[in-house]
């Protein structure tokens, strides 16, 4: 591979500002900042790069050093220059044309940082002294360089640098659009010369699909479907129906409320520098954990975490995860629950589980569900791989289901697959009514140690039976109530009523008061 092959450079043409104060802050927790770095980023600043901007830049580099892994240092040339009224910054890696399949043919473009990380050595150590070239707008007077969240009407410089370094790490599509026609790659042959027959995609473009009207997905680099270049490919690039395909990124997308595959920004009017190589702005707004790599930045938006989808996409294109992006290495296993009956018709449960790969886990959130309704959550701090447990006391008769969720350092909450359950068994018949006093309806709940037929009769203060409710085959350990409605009482007004519950093995009467 020659030096000339590495001299093509994709340039993200600019993250843009929107005049909306987001007042949103998403920053690494103290636990993440204590984690060991797994990459080295060196920055060469232009002479006019302000010192306070350099400090903010180093903050962003530190974050990326914990999210990706590479044994080869990544060198960034950072320039301070005029970029126009609304552009905040732009960046891109130097690109190498490589044989990713080891079959003797050049078949993809890789950014130098990714290529060096994959191969484990600096491919152009004696020829190229920079891997990423970045520039930031010197014309702006609304930069926020501080460590604290950005205040109103300012742009957080650390967040913008984090975004642009992301492009330098191969978050680039090498897709292009001109007068309705779309294409990909660069016209470079194996000798660094122009050759229109050697246009190849990069690893990012290889994973972008267009969703068809029938829901199927077609790869943009399938030349049987999308000739390169072609008007059909241009239509796909402006279809608003582009999605990123990959196991890790799809796993990450499944953690949120968006589509099952990451949706890419592909507006019907192609936007140079914004289309394709960004997540969709409407699907992942500034409130989202995945907002960093969208094409617009709001004022007062402090977003200093890549987000789970971006982590997944980087892993899918070839990066190895650092501690901050290792969400897929975490697993919850051996989840079990046991129950003890502590007193009549009440129990307690202990929940046990084992954590492996604790690279990104900050805490666990344990949900308890009772007859299909979530009743409570408990939190357990995560400080190590290994065994954990928690107890739940004063559980009512019936089935209780548990789920252990974990929360990563970037704030994502991930559900474990296991949902163990316990059943608190009744050891004595019991009856309760609620609410008491009541107005329009009264719930009558009975706890039974065995299945049987039950009748509920309502008597007024004079001993007259005013309502009867019968229920056959009431299951043991099922306290779900039957209801007595005000209409069952006829025209009777406020007063005291007696609720008599008769089963096959018990009889009990309780008092209820109606108020109107």
Structure description:
The chain has 516 residues and is mainly β. It has 3 domains: 4-322, no CATH class; 330-424, Immunoglobulin-like, CATH 2.60.40; 430-514, Immunoglobulin-like (Sandwich), CATH 2.60.40.2550. Helices cover 12% and strands 40% of the residues. The chain has helices at 30-34, 51-65, 112-119, 157-168, 231-237, 247-253, 308-316, and strands at residues 8-9, 15-26, 41-45, 68-69, 74-81, 87-98, 108-111, 132-137, 143-144, 155-156, 175-178, 181-184, 208-211, 217-219, 242-244, 296-303, 320-321, 331-343, 346-356, 361-370, 373-381, 386-395, 398-408, 413-415, 421-424, 430-434, 441-447, 452-460, 465-474, 482-485, 495-502, 507-514. A hairpin with a 4-residue loop joins strand 31 and strand 32 (507-514). Helix 2 (51-65) crosses helix 4 and helix 6 runs antiparallel to helix 7.
Overall structural class, as computed from helix and strand content, comes to: mainly beta
Shape: elongated
Beta-strand level of the residues, as a percent range? 35-45%
> How many DSSP-defined strands?
32
Number of domains: 3
Poorly predicted parts: 1-13
Rg estimate, integer Å: 31 Å
- For the residues shown, what is the average pLDDT? 84
The first-to-last residue Cα distance is 88 Å
What is this structure's SSE topology?
Layout: E1 8-9, E2 15-26, H1 30-34, E3 41-45, H2 51-65, E4 68-69, E5 74-81, E6 87-98, E7 108-111, H3 112-119, E8 132-137, E9 143-144, E10 155-156, H4 157-168, E11 175-178, E12 181-184, E13 208-211, E14 217-219, H5 231-237, E15 242-244, H6 247-253, E16 296-303, H7 308-316, E17 320-321, E18 331-343, E19 346-356, E20 361-370, E21 373-381, E22 386-395, E23 398-408, E24 413-415, E25 421-424, E26 430-434, E27 441-447, E28 452-460, E29 465-474, E30 482-485, E31 495-502, E32 507-514
Parallel strand pairs: 2-16, 3-5, 5-8, 9-10
Antiparallel strand pairs: 1-6, 2-6, 4-17, 6-7, 6-8, 11-12, 13-14, 13-15, 18-19, 19-22, 20-21, 20-23, 23-24, 23-25, 26-27, 27-30, 28-29, 28-31, 31-32
Helix pairs in contact: 2-4, 6-7
């Amino acid at each position: 591979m020659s030096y000339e092959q590495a001299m093509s450079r994709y340039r993200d043409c600019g993250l843009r500002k929107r005049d909306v104060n987001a007042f949103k802050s998403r920053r690494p927790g103290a636990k993440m900042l204590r984690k060991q770095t797994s990459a080295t980023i060196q920055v060469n600043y232009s002479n006019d790069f302000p010192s306070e901007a350099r400090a903010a830049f180093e903050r962003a580099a530190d974050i990326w050093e914990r999210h990706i892994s590479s044994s080869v240092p990544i060198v960034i040339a950072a320039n301070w220059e005029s970029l126009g009224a609304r552009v905040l910054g732009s960046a891109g890696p130097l690109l190498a044309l490589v044989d990713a399949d080891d079959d003797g043919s050049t078949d993809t473009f890789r950014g130098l940082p990714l290529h060096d990380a994959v191969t484990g050595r600096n491919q152009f150590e004696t020829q190229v002294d920079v891997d990423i070239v970045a520039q930031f707008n010197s014309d702006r007077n609304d930069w926020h360089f501080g460590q604290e969240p950005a205040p109103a009407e300012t742009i957080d410089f650390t967040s913008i640098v984090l975004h642009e370094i992301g492009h330098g790490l191969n978050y680039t599509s090498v897709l292009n659009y001109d007068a309705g026609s779309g294409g990909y790659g660069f016209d470079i042959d194996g000798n660094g010369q122009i050759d229109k027959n050697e246009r190849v995609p990069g690893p990012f473009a290889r994973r972008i699909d267009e969703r068809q009207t029938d829901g199927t997905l077609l790869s943009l680099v399938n030349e049987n479907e999308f000739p390169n270049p072609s008007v059909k490919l241009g239509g796909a690039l402006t279809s608003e129906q582009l999605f990123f395909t990959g196991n890790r990124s799809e796993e990450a997308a499944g953690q949120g409320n968006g589509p099952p595959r990451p949706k890419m920004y592909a507006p019907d009017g192609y936007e140079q520098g914004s289309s394709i190589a960004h997540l969709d702005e409407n699907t992942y707004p500034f409130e989202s954990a995945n907002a960093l790599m969208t094409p617009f930045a709001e004022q007062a938006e402090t977003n200093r975490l890549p987000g789970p989808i971006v982590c997944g996409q980087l892993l899918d294109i070839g990066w190895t995860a650092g501690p901050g992006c290792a969400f897929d290495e975490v697993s919850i296993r051996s989840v079990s629950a046991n129950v003890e009956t502590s007193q009549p018709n009440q129990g307690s449960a202990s929940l046990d589980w084992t954590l492996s790969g604790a690279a990104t886990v900050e805490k666990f959130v344990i949900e308890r569900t009772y007859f299909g309704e979530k009743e409570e959550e408990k939190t357990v701090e995560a400080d190590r791989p290994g065994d954990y447990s928690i107890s739940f006391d004063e559980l009512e008769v019936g089935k209780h289901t548990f789920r252990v969720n974990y929360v990563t350092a970037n704030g994502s909450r991930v559900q474990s697959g296991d949902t163990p359950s316990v059943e608190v068994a009744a050891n004595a018949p019991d009856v309760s009514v609620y609410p008491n006093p009541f107005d329009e309806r009264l719930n009558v709940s009975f706890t039974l140690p065995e299945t049987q037929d039950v009748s509920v009769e309502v008597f007024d203060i004079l001993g007259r039976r005013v309502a009867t409710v019968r229920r056959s085959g009431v299951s043991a350990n099922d306290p779900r109530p039957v209801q007595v409605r005000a209409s069952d009482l006829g025209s009777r007004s406020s007063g005291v009523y007696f609720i008599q519950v008769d089963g096959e093995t018990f009889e009990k009467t309780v008092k209820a008061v109606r108020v109107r």
